[in-house]
Amino acid sequence: MHVSEDDMAEKNGGGGNCMKEGDQHHKRTLDTLISCRRKRGRVDCDQMHEEVHLREKEAILEDGMHPYGIEPWGNYYGTAEYVKGASIRDASLGNLAALDDQSLLEILGLLNLEELLLVCMTSRALYVFGHHDELWRTLALNTLSGDFRYADSWKSTLGRSILGAKFPGHRPLNVRGLYSDLLFQPWLCATVGVLPDWLEVSNIDRRENLTLESFIAEYEKPNKPVIITDIVKNWPAYKKWDRDYLLDTFGEKEFEVGPVKMKLRNFYHYCENAKEEKPLYLFDKDFPDTCPSLTSDYDIPQYFKQDLFAALGDSRPNWRWIIIGPARSGSSFHIDPNSTSAWNAVISGRKKWIMFPPGQRPPGVFPSADMANVATSASIWEWFLNFYPATKSCKVRPLECVCEAGEIIFVPNGWWHCVLNLEPSVAITQNYVRCCPSVLHKPHCVSGIPSESREGFHEKFQQALTRHHPDVLNSLAEKMPKAASVSLWDMVVGKEIVASNEEFKFAFT
Predict the structure, then answer these.
(1) How far apart are CA 347 and CA 125, in angstroms?
(2) Three-class SS of residue 410?
(3) Are 72 and 183 spatial neighbours (Cβ–Cβ below 8 Å)?
(4) pLDDT value at 508 more than 70
(5) Cα–Cα dist 409/419, whole Å
(6) What are the distances in angstroms from CA 417 to CA 205, 330, 342, 421?
(7) DSSP 8-state class, residue 400
(8) pLDDT one-digit tens code per residue, 453-485
(9) pTM of this prediction?
(10) Cα(243)–Cα(21) distance, rounded to whole angstroms?
């Protein structure tokens, strides 16, 4: 028997709008942002002042209410007059109410398409939990790989890909009385606007007419970021790589997008129609092979041409990527792998950068002891909402900027950094080793090469340096103390690890 979502909602009393519209709702949406932060245990005295600050911002939310009526737990204690009763969670979930929200979502994530559809028809609470878009995104990507045209949601994307014109569409039903920070936060992060104070700080040098000698002396040797403003605008890429050119020339080519490969045409369609907390991000290392003409549209700037990893030839770690992403996409906090530095050239769009120097862990970022794994916020937007205010009281303040189209930013070795696309963006980035040929000596920490090649990678690099750059090794040998108990190569790859503030850096930097 077919039961429509509208019939199910009417049967369970879940239809209708649970919130009042207009000014009253706008006020409650501001309360929502604040109560969600308070519930997550991240509000101290300084953040209380930030809450007042938030109330003064204009147009904080771009959309007015959650499509399924979900509210954060903080609203449960102060808005009963609007929702006409207590939470429906326990009664609607039955025995499953004993599970916390995260555990329940993990169980639902084990279901296949048919099972998840049946669960969504069981009760009001399971209807909402079962329509968590991340569940449908995982199902869609696992089922369709990258061969899809995004619809208005991941459920609709999957339905239209399977049923075509027979798919009736999906209209979310607004359910009263369900409170969940876990379900509410992704929607909040996908709809909250950029707060003006996120863009106020700009403390990274901008330079033009910079000589190679000045770059090395003022930025590379001191390991200091810089923005170079007068190179990209001379590239053919800057004049050619707009949306129409890329689609006309490479629209049917496949690129790496998150866990799948997508045709560029389908990816642009996704970018223009999806509104997610964590948008898919095109980050493709194989573009020189699939689209070789792209490599002739830009030049490696003189500051970054000497790259010791080039001695490894085709067996070097991954090192260059084309990056395309919608607004809200980007990279969460990380340190570039294999002790490399990097440069990132913005062809179009604008990118917000936040950078912390080596040894200074960003707030809300928790690396493992060997730095192989990093725990942080679920999305960049969530980090900005919950942790960016804390950067104002850090002992070591971060460097920040908005890198504009036509600019290159230099990212020195060992710096923590995150990047948020403020608008649709296209960029080229490359990692390189110039003066500091140190690589991770632990195989599981080596990145960008097949896992079977990681064991013994540093010995292979040493042999390549001996053949192509013996001067580098000779220079290191001259600097090494005569009484040193470590070998030359141990010095190069940093087997002696210096602990600092529960983190580490390699002895050779």
Answers:
(1) 46
(2) strand
(3) no
(4) no
(5) 11
(6) 16, 11, 11, 13
(7) E
(8) 777 777 888 888 888 888 877 776 666 555 444
(9) 0.81
(10) 38
What are the structure tokens assigned to 84, written together? 């006409």
Cα radius of gyration (the chain)? 26
Q: If DSSP codes are grouped into helix, strand and coil, which group holds residue 448?
A: coil
Which three-class secondary structure state does DSSP give residue 50? helix
Assigned token pair, 294: 């792209």
Q: Closest Cα to residue 417, out of 131, 225, 210?
A: 225
Bridge partner residues of 350 (DSSP): 404
**Distances in whole angstroms, Cα of residue 175 to Cα of each of 75, 316, 412, 484:** 15, 54, 50, 70
Q: What is residue 153's DSSP assignment?
A: S
Tens of pLDDT, residue by residue over 22-40, are 344 444 444 444 444 444 4
Question: 119 is written with which tokens?
Answer: 């669960």
Token pair recorded at residue 343:
């440069």
The rounded distance, in Å, linking the Cα atoms of 256 and 286 is: 8
Query: Among 94, 127, 85, which residue's Cα sits nearest to residue 108?
Result: 127
309 contacts: CB under 8 Å, gap ≥ 6: 316, 317, 319, 338, 340, 432, 433, 461
CB-based contact 410:341 (threshold 8 Å):
yes
Alpha-carbon dihedral angle through residues 171, 174, 175, 180, given to the nearest 10 degrees:
100
Closest by CA position to 355, among listed 385, 386, 398, 402: 398
